[in-house]
Amino acid sequence: MEYVADIIVNRPAKQLNRTFIYLLPKGQTRIARGTRVLIPLGTTKEEGIVLRTYVLQERPSYQLKRIQLILDPDKPWFTEEMLGTANRLSHYYLCTYSEALSLFTINKKKTKTYERPKEEWFSASPFCQVEQLPKRKRRQRELLAYLIEKGPQAKSTLLAAGFSRLVINQIRDCLGIIVSERYKDTTTRYSKQFDEGIPLTQEQAQVYEPIQEALNTHQYKPFLLYGVTGSGKTQVYMKAAAQCIRQDKIAIVLVPEIILTNQIVKRFVDHFGDQVVVFHSKITLAERYNNWERLRRKDSHIIIGARSAVFAPTDDIGLIVVDEEHDTSYKQEDMLRYHARQVALWRGEAHQCPVILGSATPSIESYYRAQEGFYTLLRLPHRIHQQPMPKVTLVDMKEELLYGNYSVFSGALVGLLRRTLEKQEQMIILLNRRGYYTFVLCRECGQTITCPHCDVSMVYHKEGAELKCHYCDYHEPVPKVCPHCGSKKIKFFGNGTQKVEEELRRQFPGARVARLDQDVAAHKGRSEDVLEGFSKHQYDILLGTQMVAKGHDFPDVTAVGIVTADSVLNIPLYTASERTFDLLTQCAGRAGRGNKPGQVVIQTYNPLHYAIITSKAQDYEAFYKEEIKVRQSLLYPPVQEMIHMIVRQPNEVKTNALAEKVTTDLLTYIKTWSNLGETIEVFGPYEETVKKVRDLYRMAITIRGSHDKIEKIKEYIYTSWIFTQEGIVIDVDPI
Ligand code: ADP
Ligand code: ZN
Ligand code: ZN
């Protein structure tokens, strides 16, 4: 009898999207489902995941290979729920099963068993006496006395207590000393115990009640917690997490990019101490395993982290929180394009637990679902400390031009800056373009200088006097003549953060200005330094891109200036208005968080656009009402569902041909449906906004339709040639 296993190869090749049969190691008759194993594949070794083991009835015609090593000897890494969620994810987001599974693993690829780090422990037998050592071995005597007094000790503890390696090694041979190995203790840096915390306000208690109900009855229930900033949402999450700990279940708390949100992380850690493990991209592999071990043994019950923490490999989830659920960083925009909020809902459903989506400016999608009754809407309309919302002034930049002001700053913004500096308070200035001049134009032939690899303008960076491409790594020295016509009349245009920084220094010579953008963040630790310096009021003005807009809580910031509200509004995405409203209200919300009132100036060329008007009033509901009308009339999500496909090829003609082929194929398939209706449409192929990136030409196809129809077309794509074709990116639910 031959015992075999059905195995998924953990390699993201679309051609490997099926199970393979392998013989079990000699003498084995069973391996638990979800266990990772090492298998030979072709000439290499790969990680595989066991789906089932059984007795082979009939030998296949080809030579079966054998599993080489079991990588999870104690307990399978994948639980039934993880396998199920990965399967759901693979069909929903149109990726392979192994791509979906690998999201749940900590390292990309495993080729040996992971051993928990061990360390030596020293203990003295009951009969040990200090006198058994000669007097001249003074340090060894001290160590022995220490062990007799304190009982068994880890080597690291002895080292920390001041005993040298040499002395510790010498005592090994001492009669009655027992050296054993134990798992290294996996304590986190924080040690405070958690207590009940502050009691909830009446408003919070009302909101918490249905959450508690779902926690206690172990029910899947999605909540949309819509509360202005400072209304006490975090406190509600903490209350729910405490209940989860009492139930001995795991709470997953998702936050947007971790550097911006360390405040909430800090609050959880301060309050819950060792109960919290923090996941982010910068922790080491050992720390990741350590965290996972702690969760698995339930030494810790809360995992807090960015997007990927939603895949925490745990089998007993009692609560999932998605803080700032509208934040676009929850969507992974390269490789596998999943949305962490969606995965959170699936896992919550599988574990039968509440999922709290919290936001001051909910995504249109979530608010719509709440309106439709799919989520329970909970509101916290008042701030705990009653600070007023900041006062916002809109400036029409067309009028400024009319009055002869050609500078990037309006009179109102300069006025606000001056007053803020006089009062020795701080100001944040948002400008969504980095670099110095944002494009270079030839006055002779009218052409701009573009990247040779991408179809975008090169940006002048003062540092190194270079032109840089913001889509790839290409950079070149500033040309002396136009590369198109040879003319010397090349001119620089546009204001990037570097230029505005210079402008600020020129106009306000006494002010201390810090800049924060991707160029600064490229230097390790630099953005943390800037933020920390600003929070200590070592700078008066913080100027930067989106990075300055979100999450921060600086009590001395009383003023915010937004140089161009239109930069996001003009991007050709159906979510442009939503993103604008979100950016403006979030950024405005940085002002007046302490006990001094805040003031905001928003500069725009579109003062009549509803996204701008409603963000002036910081009126989310008014914005939602307008925006949902637009979505309804144009049948955009969340009213209908959407799939965006990008065909990318090194050759323009081939790109077009392939895109045509995809479109024709999809249309032909749709024609076979008996009940056609108007509920599905295929647009394209059309050129992507940026036609070429990194030497790949890009054509797009958009599919839009009702949920059922989209499901059906996904099923088709999953089994068609389109799925395995190289160079097609499929983006389900683009945002
Ligand atoms: P949000 O997450 O909605 O921005 P927070 O939970 O951070 O709101 O609360 C805002 C402020 O109010 C914080 O300083 C917090 O400590 C305080 N706070 C929250 N809940 C309470 C409460 N029940 N009693 C007293 N202070 C509270
Ligand atoms: Zn020219
Ligand atoms: Zn480029």
Which key features would you list for this structure?
735 residues, 30 strands, 5 domains, binds adenosine-5'-diphosphate, 32% helix, Rossmann fold
Briefly characterize the structure.
The chain has 735 residues and is an alpha/beta fold.
The oligomeric status of these chains comes to single chain
According to CATH, the homologous superfamily of the largest domain is P-loop containing nucleotide triphosphate hydrolases
Reading off the top of the CATH hierarchy, the class of the largest domain is best stated as Alpha Beta
For the CA atoms, what is the radius of gyration?
30 Å
- Summarize the amount of helix as a percent range: 25-40%
Strand order of the largest sheet: 11-12-10-13-14-9-15
Beginning-to-end CA distance, first to last residue: 53 Å
- Count of discrete alpha- or pi-helical segments spanning 4 or more residues: 23
- Give the domain tally: 5
Detailed description of the structure:
- The protein is an alpha/beta fold.
- The protein has 5 domains: 100 residues, GIY-YIG endonuclease; 66 residues; 185 residues, P-loop containing nucleotide triphosphate hydrolases (Rossmann fold), CATH 3.40.50.300; 188 residues, 3-Layer(aba) Sandwich (Rossmann fold), CATH 3.40.50.300; 92 residues, Alpha-Beta Plaits (2-Layer Sandwich).
- It has 23 helices and 30 strands.
- A 7-stranded parallel β-sheet has the order 11-12-10-13-14-9-15, sandwiched between helices. It has a 6-stranded parallel β-sheet with strand order 16-26-25-17-24-23, sandwiched between helices. A 5-stranded antiparallel β-sheet has the order 2-1-4-3-5, with no helix packed on it.
- Helix 3 crosses helix 5.
- The longest helix has 20 residues.
- The protein binds adenosine-5'-diphosphate and zinc ion (ZN) (2 copies).
- One zinc ion (ZN) binds next to loops.
